[in-house]
Amino acid sequence: MRHCVHRVDDATPASRDRAVDALRACAILGVVLGHWLVTALVAGDGGLHTTSPLQHMPRLAPISWLFQTLAVFFLVGGHVATRSLAGARTRGETYGCWLRTRLARLLRPVAALLCLWSVAATALLLTGAPLATVEALLKLALSPLWFLLVLTGLTAATPLLTRLNPLWPLAVVLHVDLLRFGLHIGPSWLGWLNVAAGWLVPYTLGAAWTRGELDSSRAALVLFLGGTAATAVLVGFAGYPASMVGVPGTTISNLDPPTLAAVTFGLAQCGLALLLCDRLRRAMARPLLRAAAALVNLSAMTIYLWHQTAMMATTATGLLAGRLPGLHTSPDSLGWVAYRLAWLPVFGVVLALCRTAFRHHEQGPRRPRNRRSPVVRRHLPPAKSTRNA
User: For the chain, how many structural domains are there in total?
Assistant: First the structure.
């Protein structure tokens, strides 16, 4: 572990903002843990079907407040992309070259996921698995792709978004929800405008962070308190769900598509993230935390894309031993929650195996080692690099 820490430190430019790495790692791990806690595959007579403990125990909705961290990821994504674009322009790179570099690492891991699940779905159908079970598994396995589609679109539009005020997409979300829930008019597809507008808000906040407009603690505090107050009012008095993730069987989901409550909740998260940056930089002075954050960042897309597969692989393998509590049973009691917490380390081990098997799709082929490089590199100046690019 000590050797790993030193290797990470040697490969990291001194100018890199480690607080940004910590925020991105926390956002990814929050999404992973959230999905593992609020998603259940229940074994029944017709095969496996998807449900959620939030459907049976609505009082557990605060769990979604802790682990629905997508707004923080879009905040970091906007911040890093706009800073990277500015660095590319300084170096004289074209927009096309910059975009290919940005998207390659996002999209390469997707091909491996699609190939594996195409083979797996075909094999399941040929061996007589119920169609409902195959549909449930595919929906869970491929559900992370919506996030990549949105992030890809926002990344491609970054040159147009570097100066966009976050209030504009926020106003779009407000008017769409007013038409949907307040006046009950408009076509059914109107809500899907919020998929772009809703995530534009934290993304453009990240661009404002790059411009230095959010450096003061006052700006971060306004985002945190304002977003918290607005979310409380919307949930308490405007009829929005308390859960910040989708719950099967409910008529309104805060994420499918994003609602005004989800966006204001994201504003509060972004404000809290900015308030914690100084503390995170101090925490990242510890070598072990630096290495952990770096390892998560190096495989962020692999972890995100394969975490549902890791959970499903564990669930399917566990069926060989019968219906196991917290894995195949209905999530309708606190006992199920206790058992599910005990399963989390198993999910983590399987996800680590998936990361080992598929991380090269994200990181690219390993460079051949030079036996003399440890001696020579100590006397070489650090390579120029855009911070957190």
Answer: 1
